[in-house]
Every structure is written in C-alpha cells, then in structure tokens.
Amino acid sequence: MLRSILAVALATVVMAIGLSGAQAEDGHYGKQKVVYHINYPGGEGGKKYYGALRNIQNHINAVGKDNIDVKVVMHGNGLGLLQQAKDDLKLQGNVTNLKTQNVAFNVCANTLKGRKIDKDEDLFEVYDDDIVPSGVAELSRLQGMGYTYIKP
Questions:
Q1: Per residue in 109-141, pLDDT tens?
Q2: Structural domain boundaries of the chain?
Q3: CATH second-level architecture of 31-150?
Q4: 26-28-34-36 Cα dihedral, nearest 10 degrees
Q5: Around 92, how many Cα atoms within 13 Å sit in the side-chain half-sphere?
C-alpha cells in the first residue's frame, strides 16, 4: 500500500516536471514582470543602447507582449539613450516601437537635476509621468514588487 502511494506521488512529480519542461519548449513562459537597468554610456554610435533595446524586444517576442510588464529605469549615463534618440531617427523608432508595446521608460529626477538636463529640450519623448524621484530607489521598489532585475 505504501509503495503504491509512493509510486503515485513519484509519477505525479515526474509528470509535473515534464509538463513544465514542455511548456518552456513551446515558448510559454507565463506572466513576467521585468525591470531593465540602463546607467551606462552607449558606446560608439550608441551600440550598447541598441543592444539593450534589442534585448528588450527579444524578451517581449519570446514571452508575448500580453504576458510581460517591462520597465526601463535610466539614470546617470543611461540618460544618454534618450539624449541620443533626440537626433537619431533609428533610435527614436526603436524607443517608440517599445512604447507601443507598453514598455515604460523611467528617468531619474536626481540625474536630471544634477546634470542640468531639461527633459523637454534634451531628451526624446519624456513626460512628467516618466520621471521617478531616484533611479536606484525605483529599481529597489520594483524588485520589491516582484520585478526581475536585468542589466543588459
């Protein structure tokens, strides 16, 4: 009798593991909440910024735009992404495309103040709702809310 119960329990565990593996192979990742952290310069031609945005798009493609909540938190040198996008049409297109998929781009108020950056004059499409008091505090807040931290 005990062996029968153990056999059923073991079979249930094996089946559950098999099903979860099958779902991953089918591209099913479930609902996800992620925060991408950008606080570095873009490098020559903004190569690092383009790479980060490509990572975000690939993530959305894998999980499905209806299954993912993405925040991008930028502070320090990371604001260079939206500074460069002000004059870079390709970068503008990438940012706009991600925004149409409900990706939120959050900008650190401390960086704006400390570096004397005007959100309207110096950055691409930043609105009052996009400003957070502190980039690092926002990262911590989001992680506390269950967002997975990613630094591309």
A1: 999 999 999 999 999 999 999 999 999 999 999
A2: 1-29, 31-150
A3: 3-Layer(aba) Sandwich (3.40)
A4: 20
A5: 8
